[in-house]
Each structure stands twice: as structure tokens, then as C-alpha cells.
Amino acid sequence: MDIIIASNNKYKIKEINAVMAESVRLISLSEAGIKEDIPENAETLEDNALEKARFVHRKTGSNVFADDTGLEVDALKGAPGVYSARYAGQDKNPDNNIERLLKELINHKNRKARFRTVIALIYDNNEYLFEGVINGVIIMEKKGHKGFGYDPVFLPDNEDYTFAEMPAQRKNKISHRAIAIQKLNDFLSSRL
């Protein structure tokens, strides 16, 4: 089964491919001939994911899925949330985002956080949502060089390593995105 993923982020696509069912072949935006930026103007992860999936579906008429992921920090009342990628500015610089996050948490003892991924799927012209959540804490400084985004400062509950320190195989078993993708896999498998 071919399905378009509404992303050109090579790190995200690689991570998703690692947990995607073998029967599904992902087609990136560039492979689908979509060059323009997809709008992300919604106020929730769900609406952003749907907005991206609908944009690609209108252009191609194909089955498509899009995800939106946010880091939600208790002490910051759920921020950065839907603004996670552009928390420190529109240039979407991960290092600047982490720096801002750590500065804002400097006087907070409660460093509980969760990563949440929402996948919007348009399949046979019907819309579906799948969610994955993992709880953890924001550590005081970056650790590790793997992964992307906030991975160097997010320590999942019951783990000894940040997402940026752990092997990809481990992250791809427990992450918020892996949980959501598994739900997507289960749905797609039921349609084969």
C-alpha cells in the first residue's frame, strides 16, 4: 500500500519508516510533487495534523497521513505544545527552542512533561485520528546526540537515558510517535 506522509523531514520519515508496517510504502511530499510549505495555523495538535493531511489530500486525492507533535510541560501550563517546533522563533531552530525551554524552567522544581503525537489519516476519503503519549521530565542540560528536536532534554519515565542518548531501536519502541504509528499500523492492517 502506498501512502503519502505529509512531511519532508528526513529524521521524522526515517523514524516512522522504522516502525511502519512492511506492507506500507511511504511517499514523501517531494516524491508526491508537493513543494510548497504546508500551513500549520491551528491551535491544537489534532487540528494541525488534520490541516496538513487535508492540504495534501486536496492536491493529490491520495491516501495521506500527517502528524503533529508537541512537548507539553506541566510548569509551563502545557507550553510549548502546538508551538514546539517554533517555540524560539519561526526559523524552527531546535537548539534555540531547547535553550528557551531550559531558561523558562530554571526556577521550576516541577519538570514533568509529556510528548504527544497526533496522526491524522485520510484513507478512502474518510478522516481518522490516532494519538501517542509518553510521559517524562525535562532534565537540566542536554544529553546525547541522537534524535532531533527536544530529544536531548527529554527523559522518559522509567528510562535511564534521554531520547537523544538511547539507541534508535529503543526509542522506536517506546516513543509517542511509535505509539501513534502502531495504532495507525493496526488500522491499516485491518484494511488489507
Report on the architecture of this protein:
This protein is α/β, with parallel strands linked by helices. It is about 30% helix and about 25% strand. The chain has one domain (about 1-190): Alpha-Beta Complex (Maf protein), CATH 3.90.950.10. Strands 1, 2, 3, 4, 5, 6 and 7 form a seven-stranded mixed beta sheet that branches. Helix 1 crosses helix 4 (about 170-175) and helix 4 (about 170-175) crosses helix 5.
CATH architecture: Alpha-Beta Complex
CATH fold title: Maf protein
| Unreliable segments of 5+ consecutive residues | none
Strand content: 15-25%
Q: Assign the CATH class.
A: Alpha Beta
Radius of gyration (Å): 16 Å
SSE-based structural type? alpha/beta
Helical content (DSSP H or I, runs of 4+): 25-40%
**Order of SSEs, N→C?**
EHEHEEHEEEHH
Domains, number: 1
Quantity of strands, as a count: 7
Keywords:
alpha/beta; Maf protein; 7-stranded mixed beta sheet
Topology of this protein?
Layout: E1 2-5, H1 10-19, E2 25-27, H2 45-60, E3 64-73, E4 80-81, H3 94-104, E5 112-123, E6 126-138, E7 154-156, H4 168-174, H5 176-189
Parallel strand pairs: 1-2, 1-3
Antiparallel strand pairs: 3-4, 3-5, 5-6, 6-7
Helix pairs in contact: 1-4, 4-5
How do you describe this structure in short?
With 192 residues, this protein is an alpha/beta fold. It is 30% helix and 24% strand.
